[in-house]
Every structure is written in structure tokens, then in C-alpha cells.
UniProtKB/TrEMBL annotation:
HAMAP family documented for this protein: IolG
Gene this protein is translated from: iolG
Domain named Gfo/Idh/MocA-like oxidoreductase C-terminal: residues: 145-319
Molecular function in Gene Ontology: inositol 2-dehydrogenase (NAD+) activity; nucleotide binding
Name under which the protein is recorded: Inositol 2-dehydrogenase
Keywords: NAD, Oxidoreductase
Keyword match Protein biosynthesis: no
Taxonomic lineage of the native organism: Bacteria, Pseudomonadati, Pseudomonadota, Alphaproteobacteria, Rhodobacterales
Family the entry assigns: Belongs to the Gfo/Idh/MocA family.
Residue stretches making up the Gfo/Idh/MocA-like oxidoreductase N-terminal domain: 3-125
């Protein structure tokens, strides 16, 4: 039996997820879509989901008896409402990051899922599924000794004018916030943000680059460079310094050339290409679990921890140079 999926938000990633469900993966079909911009919904249906129903009301899509599971791919500030409605309908929900744009919002989702009594939410932290990060985790767990430091970088070539300083945290750093916590099997205790000299390519409402320093409960110090006007490429770097050695995230595969007296290797320009296999794997996991009426992968609790950490990092941006403490409440038993 095929899982009938409804997608809310058919922009860049909503269309890409619809493409992979309908054209790449097995076990599910996107049969309904909704978007505040109907033209996006129409394009998504025309390109990737012929015959799918376009709902004008997202809540009607969630409630529809023909929909078994929901993907929330709309803008971050809309996620909480749709995830809560999907939990209330008792259906599995895949929610793109962030789970919610505030810690309070993410907590409401955790509380609703706990009240429902079973996992229904998977957060789109796809890097946990990336073969490179998984290989790095194996090396950190078994070869390089206890981690002492992490040096990481998250660089985008450019961003639009709607991307403002706090989005470097909520939209971009959030991937490192989640994946480094998973990589180190640790939680954060404090955050600090430093702003180097501003890039001339950054617009007025954006301080770019930024350096975020996170400390963990086990004493690891992490520095993450966020630079969203790198111009040269989409570049994700991660190096873990351990007691016995160093482990680095592998570069994405690319053809090495020897041409014109130069040794060359291409650098990707678009985030969509960098973790393309991971999106396939995370949705495979979602389809498998949702077909059994539940959810797998990164949890609502992971989304909540990321939101608490993001809020602390934004406070650290505002109090430049100051160290902001990160306090987490006890983890509900449902999340292990
Ligand atoms: P986008 O602007 O291209 O698309 C968002 C779509 O949602 C638009 O079509 C918009 O009209 C629609 N929308 C907005 N509000 C809505 C509402 N209330 N109800 C229904 N539709 C609504 O943005 P995007 O780049 O596709 O990002 C969407 C989400 O996916 C964001 O949460 C973003 O953080 C996340 N994202 C994740 C990754 C990743 O690597 N995991 C990458 C990109 C985006
Ligand atoms: P798993 O290996 O048991 O299952 C993952 C599924 O995705 C499998 O079906 C597997 O085939 C597929 N998959 C994922 N990545 C793949 C890759 N790179 N290559 C090939 N197939 C891949 O893993 P598990 O334990 O379910 O974890 C999945 C992710 O979700 C992990 O990152 C894990 O840390 C996370 N997770 C987190 C939880 C939490 O409480 N934080 C709970 C459960 C999972
Ligand atoms: C975008 O939303 C993503 O999730 C990308 O992975 C990230 O690199 C980018 O900075 C975000 O805007």
C-alpha cells in the first residue's frame, strides 16, 4: 500500500521533496499540496505531481481522510501551526527545519506529541543522514579519541535581502547546532558570537560573517564560521580535534582535473546539491515509519533543543562578545 502524502509549502524544498517522493523513492505519493502562493502549488503539481489536488486551506489538507501523512515545507514561522494540527489529526508529520522559530513554540510541539503518546514528528535535519557525516561520526566514536575541539564553517555564496542577521542562526547555523550535538553525543551549555570586519557584499541589515562559539556539557569548544556571502561556493567544513588525532568531514565528490598547469576540483554553488543523497535517505526513513503510523529520525525534542540553542545564539549576537548560558529542561521519557 502506498502512503498518501500532502505537502504544505511548495517552494524550493517543497518542490524538490515532491520530486523525490514521486520520481525517486518508493512507497509513497504526493497526492495533495497547499501553498499561500497558488502559482507555486500549480507549478509543483504540473512538474512533479500530476493529478494531485491543490487545497486552498492547509488545515483542510491536514484533516482530509485521503491524506495519511504531511510534509511541512513552508516558511519557518508557519511550521508550528501546521505541525500541531497534524499531531492533533493523529498523522505523521515531516517538518523542515526549524521545527518552530521560538523555543516556546517547539516546546508546544513536544508537549503535544508527548500527550499523543507516540512519535509523530520527524524534523528535517538531513545532515544526520549524510554518508560523510556518518563516516566522520564513526571516526570520532572509534578512532580519534575523546573530542576536544570542533572547527566548522557554513558558507553560502550569497543570500537575498530578506535574509537578516538572526537568520544566520535560525536558518543556517541550525544545521550545525543539530548535527554537532548528534556527532559529539553532547549538549550545549553556552554560546558566544563574534563579528569580524563586515563583508562589503553583505547588505545593510546583515552582519556577515559571524563566528559562533559553543561550549558543551563535556567541555568541547566549538567554533563555527557562518559566512553567507562567500561568493566562491556553498562550502560546509567540519574538523573534530580529538585526544589522539583529527577527523575531517570529506569533501563532496568532484572530478579532479589537471588542466592548464592547474590541479583543480569543483566547488558546489547550491545547497540543494550538497546533501542531495541525505534528503533521499531522510524521506525514505519518514515513509518507512509513517507507513507504520509513527515517525523516526531527528525528533521534536531535537527540534526543541535546536530552538533553545538558537535563541541563546541570537541573544549572544545581540550582546556581542558576551557568553550566554544555555539551560535545558529534563528530556521527556519518550525521547530516550
Ligand atoms: P521558499 O520561499 O522557496 O518556499 C516557501 C513556500 O512556502 C513558498 O512557496 C510560500 O508561498 C509558501 N508558504 C509560505 N507561507 C505559507 C503558509 N502559511 N501556508 C502555505 N504555504 C506557505 O522557501 P524554501 O527555501 O523552500 O524554504 C522552506 C522551508 O524549508 C524553510 O523552513 C527552510 O528553512 C527549509 N529549508 C530547508 C533546507 C534544508 O537543507 N533542510 C533547505 C532550504 C530550506
Ligand atoms: P538507521 O541506520 O537505523 O536507519 C536509518 C534509515 O535511513 C535506514 O533505513 C537506512 O537505510 C537509511 N539511511 C540513513 N542514512 C543512510 C545512508 N547514509 N546511507 C544509506 N542509508 C541510509 O539509523 P537510525 O538510528 O534510525 O538513525 C537515523 C538518524 O536519525 C540518525 O541520524 C539518528 O541519530 C537519528 N535518530 C535520532 C533519534 C534521537 O532521539 N535523536 C532517534 C532516532 C534516530
Ligand atoms: C537554507 O534554508 C538551508 O537550509 C541551507 O542548508 C543553508 O545552507 C542555508 O544557509 C539556509 O538558508
Amino acid at each position: 500500500m502506498s502512503l498518501n502524502i500532502g505537502v504544505i509549502g511548495t517552494g524550493a524544498i517543497g518542490q524538490d521533496h515532491t520530486r523525490r517522493i514521486n520520481q525517486v523513492l518508493a512507497g509513497a505519493r504526493v497526492v495533495a499540496v497547499n501553498d499561500v502562493n497558488r502559482a507555486n502549488a500549480e507549478k509543483c503539481v504540473a512538474d512533479y505531481a500530476p493529478g494531485a489536488t491543490i487545497f486552498d486551506d492547509p488545515n483542510a489538507l491536514i484533516a482530509d481522510a485521503g491524506i495519511d501523512a504531511v510534509l511541512v515545507c513552508s516558511w519557518g514561522q508557519t511550521h508550528e501551526e501546521y505541525v500541531l494540527a497534524t499531531i492533533a489529526a493523529g498523522k505523521p508529520c515531516f517538518c523542515e527545519k526549524p521545527l518552530a522559530t521560538t523555543a516556546e513554540g517547539a516546546r508546544r510541539i513536544v508537549d503535544a506529541e508527548v500527550a499523543a503518546g507516540k512519535r509523530l514528528v520527524q524534523v528535517g535535519f538531513m545532515r544526520r543522514y549524510d554518508p560523510g557525516y556518518r563516516a566522520l561520526k564513526r571516526a570520532v566514536d572509534s578512532q580519534t579519541g575523546a573530542p576536544l575541539m570542533v572547527h566548522a564553517a557554513h558558507r553560502n555564496p550569497r543570500v537575498g535581502n530578506a535574509y537578516v542577521t538572526p537568520m544566520a542562526i535560525h536558518d543556517t547555523l541550525i544545521h550545525e547546532i543539530d548535527v554537532l550535538r548528534w556527532l559529539l553525543d553532547d549538549d550545549y551549555v553556552s554560546a558566544q558570537v563574534l563579528f569580524p570586519r563586515k563583508s562589503p557584499h553583505a547588505h545593510e541589515a546583515l552582519r556577515d560573517p559571524q563566528v559562533v562559539i559553543l561550549q558543551t556539557a563535556k567541555g568541547v569548544v566549538i567554533d563555527v564560521e557562518i559566512f553567507v556571502n562567500s561568493r566562491y561556493g556553498y562550502d560546509i567544513q567540519c574538523e573534530v580535534v580529538g585526544e589522539e588525532g583529527i577527523a575531517r568531514l570529506p569533501e563532496p565528490m568532484g572530478i579532479q582535473t589537471r588542466l592548464n598547469a592547474t590541479l583543480g576540483q569543483p566547488i558546489l554553488m547550491d545547497w540543494k546539491d550538497r546533501f542531495i543523497d541525505s534528503y533521499d535517505y531522510e524521506l525514505t526513513d519518514f515513509i518507512r515509519a509513517a507507513s507504520a503510523g509513527t515517525a523516526a529520525g531527528p525528533t521534536a525534542w531535537d527540534g526543541y533543543v535546536a530552538a533553545v540553542t538558537s535563541d541563546a545564539c541570537v541573544a549572544a549576537q545581540e550582546a556581542e562578545g558576551t557568553t550566554i548560558a544555555i539551560d535545558l529542561p529534563a528530556r521527556p521519557a519518550m525521547y530516550g
